Amino acid sequence: MSRALIVRRAGPGLTLQDRGRPGYMGFGLSPGGAADRLALAEGAALLGQDDGLAALEMAGMGGEFEAESDMRIALTGAPMRAAIDGTRVAWHASHALPAGARLTIGGAEAGSYGYLHVGGGFGGDVRLGSRSVHVASGLGQAVESGARLEIGEETAPAEVNRLLPVAPRFEGGTVRVVPSLQTDFFDADQIERFETTRFKRDARGSRMGVRLDFDGEGFHSDAGLSVLSEVVVPGDIQITGDGAPFVLLGECQTTGGYPRIASVLPCDLPTVVQATPGTALRFRFVTLEEAVEAERRAAAHRNGLRSALTPLVRDPHNIRDLLAYQLISGATAGRELEET
Q1: Strands 173-178 and 280-285, sheet pairing
Q2: What is the DSSP letter of 208?
Q3: Residue 73 burial by CB count (10 A; 0-12/13-18/19+): exposed, middle or buried?
Q4: Which residues are within 8 A (CB) of 133 and not within 5 positions of it... i.e. 6 or more apart?
Q5: Which of 18, 184, 284, 309 ranks highest by number of CB atoms within 10 Å?
Q6: Residue 240 and residue 202 in contact, taking contact as beta carbons nearer than 8 Å
Q7: Nearby residues of 46 by Cβ (< 8 Å), 6 or more positions away
């Protein structure tokens, strides 16, 4: 590979992530992968490429990057303040990044995990079928300042300046859950209180999971004291020893002995992932049939993302080479030069 993005300044939590490593739970390795899987699909739609390509995950803050050659980028996930050579650019959109241009990405303005995608996807070593860094197991490592990130060859049409409207998932809200194997270990009043409690995302959390804070007594199950360590999966909500719920995420352990009161639907997990400390979350039980239908609609939504793209309307004040466009007719879409 000859194309690359140079990392001039790395934020504290930069890692390459794709869809992770399914199939290794039996060996003690959880799937991992991008914390917000929907953001991967959104970036792929914006660049017209496969959503299995690796993107750069930014935990709360981005960094400064320099294009070694002409390339396309897309920005998804938690909105962050981004600029190309000092001119602010839109989030949830695709842009051209010419050779030598500097892309700066600041802190998150909402949510926790932002994503930088490149046309052709990021390269790097493939381990156990994935380029994802698995922080909890020490598989791979974080991206540091000075790194040269190789980029794959472009196979998609070179379209840029596309905008993707996204549904809110960065400010908490109600998350749908289904009963787990141990929900019946909790009394009915405990279940009802769990469903009516307004939780807040605790400051303690990582790619493995997040703890939830709340007012009142902790949740408890006498039957839960006899639970043996058994398989757990991302989305499971364990009730820890102090009675606080803990939602497991992509890099969770593969077994656990705390009783599970519920399990978050995979399509709603990004809302938990993107919640910042203090963000309010509620949980609502749905039936298995409702959950299957919700997942079906979510899959249809992901498959239809490309049809939702709209042209990115640019502010003339931010088009440095405005006079280079054909303005005789009195109007320009602001992207003609990139499309020639």
Answers
A1: parallel
A2: S
A3: buried
A4: 15, 16, 17, 32, 139, 140, 141, 142
A5: 18
A6: no
A7: 74, 76, 92, 93, 94, 117, 162, 164, 309
Q: Longest C-alpha distance within the chain, in Å?
A: 78
Q: Are residues 244 and 171 in contact, defined by beta-carbon separation less than 8 angstroms?
A: no
Q: What is the pLDDT of residues 23-36, one digit of tens each?
A: 999 999 999 999 99
Q: Residues 157-183: pLDDT tens digits?
A: 778 999 999 988 999 999 999 999 999
Cα separation of 100 and 78, whole Å?
A: 26
Q: Measured between alpha carbons, how far is 339 from 211 in angstroms, rounded to an integer?
A: 47
How far apart, in whole angstroms, are the C-alpha atoms of residue 17 and residue 40? 9
The sign of the dihedral angle between the CA atoms of 69, 70, 74, 80 is: positive
> Across the strands, what pairs with 247?
210, 237
> Which single residue is written with the structure tokens 């709360």?
60
Task: Please check whether residue 75 is in contact with residue 114, taking contact to mean a CB–CB distance below 8 angstroms.
Answer: yes
Q: In which residue are the tokens 């939590």 written?
A: 13
Cα–Cα dist 324/162, whole Å:
21
Element (H, E) at 272: helix 269-274
Q: What's the rounded Cα separation, in Å, for the pair 55 and 43?
A: 8
